[in-house]
Amino acid sequence: MSRFAPDPAFLTTSHPVGDLGLCHVRLQDDARYPWLVLIPRLAGLREIEDLDGPDRSRLMEEAILAGQAVRAMGMALSLPVDKLNLGALGNVTAQLHLHVVGRRPGDPAWPGPVWGHSPAPALEGSPLSAALAAARLALGL
Amino acid sequence: MSRFAPDPAFLTTSHPVGDLGLCHVRLQDDARYPWLVLIPRLAGLREIEDLDGPDRSRLMEEAILAGQAVRAMGMALSLPVDKLNLGALGNVTAQLHLHVVGRRPGDPAWPGPVWGHSPAPALEGSPLSAALAAARLALGL
Asked: Which end of chain A has fewer surrounding CB within 10 Å, N or C?
């Protein structure tokens, strides 16, 4: 099996946060939502069923932790999280990845899904730094 | 804690398939996609983090099984599954539930998400019976 590397598509749409036991974590570059992307650090994965049993449980626990981090990012960005949205789609970028998005009533895509909704305004400068710091603290990175 | 019952919103949009160890399983009433919905059979849940550790692992395993059932439904409906989409949103119906949807390039919402895309043509008659039978066989129900 070849070595893991995040699909190049992620490099233009997100910022690296760090690595958990299973997943490489990235912060989606969208100023409208606190949003993390978990990418299991194994090559050749496309579906969650491609993970073995222990790694499936690990993905679940890292998704829960990412939800807590998204709430912390929401506090840092003044984008309070009322509902977590989890999604593993992969229709555009096939490499297995899980989105964890913080949603609130009245956000731009509410109550529909964020994926494919509209172009993302970039998260830059001190809000980006604050979101990255909040995410890393919550993830223990 | 009050007793579990599926939110009434599910009753108008889906058909009951049966109960797994954790989840009540429903077949989404949409002729365009093989699509199951898993609803953990515990009252008062809103986020995956509301489940305890063993039930989180159980949800993961039932989601994998549901993916296999969705592929079987796709065969029965001549809607071949190229990619599974998993989503836990709950922005409209807050009761914790997980969508498992079979997607293929060129399907009506491809490559965007199915949620909120467009009104669903009903799945009726013998295709509905075939999909239910395929789902139950794959789920061991």
From this structure: N
